Amino acid sequence: MYIRLPKKFTMDSDTTKNVAFIKNKELKIRRGTSFRAVMYEITYRKYGLRCHYCGRYLPKEKITVDHMFPQDFGGPTITNNLIPACKACNNEKNNMTKNEYLAFLTAKKHGKGKEFRREFNKNMKYGQYKIPKSWLTKRSITEITATFDLKENYSKGKLRTIKYFYNTYGILKKPIVVDKNGFLLDGFMLLMFAKTKGIKEIPVIVLDNVEVI
Ligand SMILES: [Zn+2]
């Protein structure tokens, strides 16, 4: 799939210039740069520091990034799935998709927010991806290259959630995200879990206009 990119974009880190930039309509990311940080930065620059849901402007340290398709339903951290939101709206939205939340807000306006939420919670079924099918593909685990530092990327809490999801619902919590060459961008712990569990084929989102250099 192709992620949404601005025409022009460059990003510096504290120590290095141009850790990410756009060239020939492709996003180039230097190895070792946080993919999540790049996705957040593009999202802020595209939409501004303004909550998409209530319209409030916020300073950068107060704004959050909403996953329009929630992470518990497979929502990846890619620009197509991100929108700036204030903490209050983001918390209220919680595990709803953007469209579900907009429907909730309409119901709330008419004094039916509580009923909507009750019905929503009753019908909520974990263990499914709600993202567009066109984003998703499957890859053999051997086709993915990862050079992440285990010390830097290991997270006990994340691993626990991944394990819980897999044992309870039988799926990887989220697809992993790779660049056009199969280089891992996001989902280090998911990949590690799949490897130790002996899962050979995993759900993957391939970004055809992103390259780690
Ligand atoms: Zn808001």
List the helices and strands and how they pair.
Layout: E1 10-11, E2 20-23, E3 26-29, H1 35-47, E4 64-67, E5 82-85, H2 87-93, H3 98-109, H4 113-123, E6 137-140, H5 150-153, H6 156-169, E7 176-178, E8 184-186, H7 188-197, E9 201-206, E10 210-212
Helix pairs in contact: 3-4
The chain binds zinc ion (ZN).
The site of zinc ion has 8 residues, from helix 2.
* Oligomeric assembly: single chain
Bound molecules: zinc ion
Strand order of the largest sheet: 1-2-3-10
Helix content: 25-40%
Radius of gyration based on Cα positions: 18 Å
- Identify low-pLDDT runs: none
- Summarize the biggest pleated sheet: 4 strands, mixed
Order of helices and strands: EEEHEEHHHEHHEEHEE
Structural class call reads: alpha+beta
**Helix segment tally:** 7
Strand portion: 15-25%
Query: Separation of termini?
Result: 19 Å
Taken together, the total number of domains comes to 2
Task: Explain what you see.
This protein has 213 residues and is of the alpha+beta class. The chain has two domains: 10-123, no CATH class; 133-212, Alpha-Beta Complex (Conserved hypothetical protein from pyrococcus furiosus pfu- 392566-001, ParB domain), CATH 3.90.1530.10. It is 33% helix and 17% strand. The protein contains seven helices and ten strands. The strands form three sheets. Strands 1-2-3-10 form a four-stranded mixed beta sheet, with helices on one face. Strands 6-9-7-8 form a four-stranded mixed beta sheet, covered by helices on one side. Strands 4-5 form a two-stranded antiparallel ribbon. The protein starts with 9 loop residues before the first strand and ends with a strand. The relative contact order is 0.16. Zinc ion is lined by residues 51, 53-54, 56, 85-86, 88-89.
